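From the pipeline queue, job 12 of 40. The input is one protein chain; the requested action is below.

Action: predict structure.
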Amino acid sequence: MASLSIPGVEDPDETGLSAPVCRTVTPDGDVLLLLPGDSAAARAAAHAQDDELTAVMEITDVAPVSVPHRIRGRAWVAGWLTPVPNGMRAEAAMLLAERHPVGELLGLGEALQPDPAPGLAGRTAWMMLRLEVGEGAVDDLWGAEPFEPDDFAAAAPDPLVAHEAELLQHLHAAHSDQVRGLCALLGDREQRCGLRDRAVPVGLDRFGLRVRFTDAEQRSFDARFDFPEPVRDVAELRRAMHQLFEAAGDDSP
């Protein structure tokens, strides 16, 4: 989930935030956003014209499985918000279309229309905005860390992100005993989980698997199991998961 806030700009819906319908990152590290044209952020960006408009995008990472306390981490990106110029909208729309389902992009056609001339009435129902990143930070299982714009621009999308939800659900439904058996790899923390414990996979990326263990007294903790090396696709993920299960003493498929 992502939301956009602009210091000093109030939202008439009293949420204080504008939620992008979809977003993506350009090769240069800018964030492209598609928002309703009547949102607080879109109105403020249109009114600011060429002036720099400071904005903060807050991102909440929510586990795609049903567990208590589903938030896995948070991040924020601060920078300067401007409307995407007429001449750059087609390229921006192509980037958004490459990375989002069609249903999320129903407003792209209207967002591609030129802005009305100054002094003419009318406002588009959708607007594409660009956030030039100035700074940011991530707060997750490993702690809170700032990042630089160059690092943000250089970061590659995780190859499993589009499949994470179905992969986690498959692991939980078809391999729950093996996932629970990973507790054998936890060293001293192994004493906190046993046969009656519940183990739910709550995160998966190219670097490893995150599992939430809950004991009989409803005490929970998350553990991270790193793969021997980052995986590049689902086939490599399958081999990496077999290696994890084998290390825990269960080599069944």
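Job complete. The longest strand covers residues 126-140.
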